[in-house]
Design goal:
The complex is a heterotrimer of chains A (293), B (306) and C (326).
Chain A: H1 2-7, H2 17-46, H3 48-51, H4 83-119, H5 121-136, H6 139-150, H7 154-163, H8 166-181, H9 184-191, H10 196-232, H11 244-251, H12 260-292
Chain B: H1 2-29, H2 33-37, H3 44-54, H4 60-72, H5 86-121, H6 126-138, H7 143-157, H8 169-199, H9 202-209, H10 214-251, H11 257-266, H12 270-298, H13 300-303
Helix pairs in contact in B: 1-12, 5-6, 5-8, 5-10, 5-12, 6-8, 7-8, 7-10, 8-10, 9-10, 10-11, 10-12, 11-12
Chain C: E1 3-15, E2 20-32, E3 36-40, H1 47-54, E4 62-71, E5 74-75, H2 81-87, E6 92-95, H3 109-120, H4 126-139, H5 145-148, H6 158-170, E7 176-180, H7 188-205, E8 208-213, H8 216-222, E9 225-230, E10 233-239, H9 240-245, H10 250-258, H11 297-301, E11 306-308, E12 315-317
Parallel strand pairs in C: 3-8, 3-9, 6-7, 7-8
Antiparallel strand pairs in C: 1-2, 1-4, 4-5, 9-10, 10-12, 11-12
């Protein structure tokens, strides 16, 4: 109808340009900040063997529970180990696990989500019912029970956290695939005789890429938190290997005498997750304005 | 309306049934209690006898059917460890956990929703800025870390609140705040996004044209329409809170459900783990049922079956 | 014939950090009791914004830059927010285009019609409010109003919903009703019913009305006066018969020339070559000049002042108007 088509051009919708560019500048600044924090954390984790000032597992009982100083930036823990060195080495395993889980859960969740959304029918029903379990049982409890079953090795932790996290991806991607399924270009491709595999690879996958990217970054933080929780409960990374979760757990008893042993590694964890979340938010905001068309 | 509720209930039951199967299998992978609970010098014959007593000698599906049969009669088996009904142990520990998660939820809703509304109604205002900072921080650390920060500051430095233990409001305040912050942040963001969207709706314009006071426009016309996804999200946070409570209970020596599961896993107390999972799943169905009823109560289109 | 509303030099701006663009630029008109003004123009010409400005309900991106709105002798721009709340819905009503979206889906129609009485007439108690709602629904011809007062919006058709929306806005007997494209979203068969309902209500209490539309046929049938908007300005206004029989502005002329004899095609407006300007995207001159066949150099550099016809009831903003004794 003429009126409908025309009314969309009502000037009320035309937002002032200058403010958008200002908001864009703030967003870019946030993006740069997030990326630099992540680069710093990931970089120091990767280079940990060379830049860690001390051996993270070297004990020095005569030097236990020393407050932060020029020599020990984050102080020392109850066994005299250097908290700073342990924090950056601990980041290694935590980030490795998080990256592996995000990759695995992202891939499997996306595939299952596309299959569920694109094929529909009973396959969709089964996948979504299984995904519902994740809502029925908190991921932490699910992961705890599973780690209890198969033991806390690094591989097992990755497997367990992946199992406890794929469904979120599946759910969101399924919704996207469902809406794409009926779009003209998919229908046309099908009329042209394209195989389902080809449609999924060429038409569906590229269209869910942006959503997936946002989900991946937002989930990174969530998974770091989940791994830290498991380690904190003693069901994750096992001592003497340092991880943020175990360091916070170990320092818990010294909160009054030596707060740095738990709080400072926690701050590193928090900064990392914060950066990942900011990154995800910036990407989401960027997506939003693109999709607003 | 009735068919809507029945359909939702059916889906919930199917999920829980599927979950009991999975948990049933996983729990049996943990190990054989006959090895853990009998002394090492026990003979294989002793162990077989023990297994028969526990019922773990039968094929898995027979065990599962027996478990389901018991479930229908409200019998979730006897704890291997304590020799008393597993359900009793679980329910006893569920109370303190619900007290903690309930308080955390009240805090999350009581802070997250109003902040979200303020932030949507006055974008760029003080509440908006503060709310965003609150949300960003709340989602960037695990609850047990906030718990330690709070203890260090409010208990060790200021001596305002106890560092742990089970008790009244002063005991539950810190754990509930630490636990609820993450959910409060999510609720704030979701409320903000939904309210902002609803505020652009034509019926909001109409409510203002009708000359309704702004408070009625926001709290009645806008909030009601923005509330459905917020309610769903809040309900989904019960699971998150129950999960987070595991570590919070450890930090504050809170005699809850989470610690029970951790202990039961390490003691291979199958029946207690199963009972705990079944109870939390039942809780899940219950909460979802409440959500569905709330939906129907709020939205007439659902109530009239559309 | 008393003047209910006089809009003077109304200007509304899109607020941006540096500079701003006028979306409504120096608009003036008046409406009298029992009469209907047709506000005509293409989408984006500023008609809806003019109406929202009168009610002081502009979206946040826009701001009121100047002018005054005299309603029954008082300037609405001087009123406190609280006083404006009392005027909206109480003394000025407004109907929106799409009744499918303009009524809250979650509350009964009785509740939403009754609300007006609660906040403008101080009626309290569900029973009293529903009684007033039933009364109002009867006046807008909702069949079986007593039974349907507890129904929800989704249980009504589009035409019925528009009647309910009208009910919400005329329940408190306003002196002015603004109808912003009240029939555009409705089926053709229902349009006339809605318009005759509006007429009936207007006749019953001598309400003034502004009918915003892009349908010239509607204007010729239902309005007494017409104001033609283009690019945020009123280019021509006056009594409907005189403007339509003898358009003075080239734009008006183009519009009327573009209306075919058969009425049902009357919705089509722009058969004039080119596109209307967006707010801020025009020069200092006449906004229509780029599309005008008669444009002269000064049309591009200076905006023409309103020229009034002898009896002061007609005005046109054009350097080279037709049929105006110079």
């Amino acid at each position: 109808m003429v009126a409908d088509a025309l009314s969309r051009r009502e000037p009320a919708v035309a937002a002032p340009r200058r403010r958008i560019s200002l908001r864009g500048a703030v967003r870019r600044a946030r993006l740069v900040l997030a990326l630099s924090i992540l680069a710093l954390v990931v970089g120091s984790a990767l280079l940990a063997p060379w830049i860690a000032p001390f051996d993270p597992n070297a004990m020095d009982l005569g030097n236990a529970l020393q407050p932060p100083s020029a020599e020990h930036w984050f102080g020392t823990d109850q066994l005299g180990r250097d908290v700073f060195s342990r924090a950056i080495v601990g980041g290694q395993l935590s980030l490795l696990i998080a990256a592996a889980v995000v990759a695995l859960a992202g891939t499997s969740g996306t595939l299952l989500g596309i299959v569920a959304g694109y094929r529909g029918g009973w396959i969709d029903g089964i996948i979504m019912r299984v995904a519902d379990i994740q809502y029925a049982l908190p991921p932490v409890i699910l992961a705890m029970v599973m780690v209890g079953a198969i033991g806390p090795s690094t591989t097992n932790i990755v497997a367990v956290i992946t199992l406890a996290n794929w469904a979120r991806f599946a759910r969101v991607i399924r919704a996207e695939a469902l809406s794409l399924r009926h779009r003209d270009f998919v229908l046309l491709a099908r009329l042209a005789g394209a195989s389902h595999l080809r449609i999924v690879l060429v038409h569906i996958l590229p269209n869910v890429r942006n959503t997936l990217l946002v989900l991946l970054t937002l989930d990174l933080g969530l998974i770091i938190i989940l791994e830290a929780t498991l380690s904190f409960l003693g069901l994750g990374i096992q001592p003497p290997d340092p991880s943020w979760g175990t360091m916070i757990a170990d320092g818990r008893g010294y909160l009054e005498r030596a707060w740095w042993t738990s709080i400072l590694p926690g701050c590193v964890l928090m900064l990392t997750v914060l950066a990942a979340n900011l990154l995800g938010d910036s990407l989401r905001a960027g997506n939003g304005s693109e999709e607003a068309r | 309306m009735v068919s809507y509720i029945l359909r939702r209930l059916g889906a919930g039951l199917a999920t829980v049934l599927l979950m009991t199967i999975i948990i049933f299998i996983i729990v049996r992978l943990v190990g054989d209690p006959a090895h853990l609970m009998l002394p090492p010098e026990a003979t294989e014959a002793d162990r077989d006898l023990f297994r028969q007593q526990l019922g773990t000698a039968d094929p898995l599906f027979v065990q599962y059917l027996r478990f389901l049969g018991g479930l229908l009669q409200g019998d979730l088996g006897t704890s291997f460890r304590y020799g008393v009904p597993a359900l009793g142990i679980v329910l006893e520990r569920l109370g303190p956990s619900l007290y903690l998660t309930g308080t955390a939820m009240a805090f999350a809703v009581g802070l997250g929703v109003p902040l979200g509304i303020l932030s949507a109604v006055r974008p760029g205002g003080v509440a908006d800025q503060a709310g965003r900072l609150f949300a960003v921080l709340g989602q960037s650390a695990p609850p047990f870390f906030f718990a330690l920060l709070f203890i260090r500051f409010f208990s060790v430095e200021l001596h305002w609140l106890p560092t742990g233990g089970y008790g009244g409001f002063s005991h539950v305040l810190l754990p509930a705040l630490a636990l609820g912050w993450y959910s409060a942040a999510g609720l704030m963001r979701l409320t903000q996004a939904n309210m902002a969207e609803v505020m652009d709706a034509e019926y909001i314009k109409m409510a203002r044209i009708k000359g309704l006071p702004e408070r009625v426009v926001i709290l009645k016309h806008a909030l009601s329409n923005a509330s459905l996804p917020v309610i769903t999200f809040a309900a989904s946070q019960f699971g998150i809170l129950l999960g987070g409570a595991v570590s919070i209970e450890a930090v504050f020596s809170w005699p809850g459900f989470g610690k029970l599961i951790v202990d039961a896993i390490s003691q291979l107390d199958y029946t207690v783990v199963q009972a705990a999972v079944v109870v939390s799943a039942a809780l899940f169905i219950l909460i979802n049922l409440v959500v569905d009823l709330l939906y129907a109560f709020i939205d007439p289109r659902i109530r009239y079956g559309r | 014939m008393s003047e209910i509303l006089r809009v003077e030099n109304l200007t509304t701006r899109l607020s941006a950090r540096d500079g701003s663009a006028a979306a409504v630029d120096g608009v003036s008109f008046s409406v009298h009791a029992g009469r209907t003004l047709g506000l005509v123009g293409e989408s984006g010409s500023g008609k809806s914004l003019t109406c929202l400005s009168i009610l002081r309900l502009l979206p946040p991106a826009l701001s009121q830059a100047g002018g005054s709105v005299w309603f029954k002798g008082e300037n609405l721009f001087d009123k406190s927010p609280r006083a404006m709340t009392a005027i909206r819905g109480g003394q000025i009503g407004m109907i929106l285009q799409d009744p499918m979206t303009s009524i809250n889906p979650l509350f009964t129609i009785g509740d939403q019609v009754g609300e007006v009485f609660r906040y403008h007439r101080g009626v309290s108690g569900r029973r009293n409010l529903w009684a007033r709602a039933v009364e109002t629904l009867r006046r807008v011809h909702i069949p079986a109003a007593e039974e349907r007062v507890g129904s929800y919006p989704h249980q009504f058709s589009g035409g019925m919903r528009q009647r309910i929306a009208i009910g919400m806005n005329v329940g408190c007997e306003p002196d002015l009703l603004i109808a912003d494209e009240p029939t555009t979203a409705l089926d053709v068969t229902i349009r006339l019913q809605i318009l005759s309902l509006l007429r009936e209500i207007q006749a019953a209490r001598g309400m003034a009305m502004i009918l915003v539309t892009h349908d010239l046929h509607l204007v010729s049938r239902f309005c007494d006066e017409v104001a033609v908007m283009y690019g945020g300005r009123i280019v021509e206004q006056g009594p409907v018969a005189r403007v339509f029989n003898d358009p003075a502005h080239p734009y008006t002329k183009g519009l009327i020339g573009a209306v075919p004899k058969i009425a049902r095609h009357a919705e089509r407006l722009a058969v004039i070559p080119g596109q209307p300007p967006l707010a801020g995207e025009h020069g200092a001159g006449c906004r229509f000049a780029p599309r005008c066949a008669k444009a002269q150099p000064r049309c591009f550099s200076h905006y023409p002042d309103d020229r009034r016809f002898e009896d002061d009831r007609r005005a046109v903003a054009c350097w080279v108007p037709e049929g105006l004794p110079s």
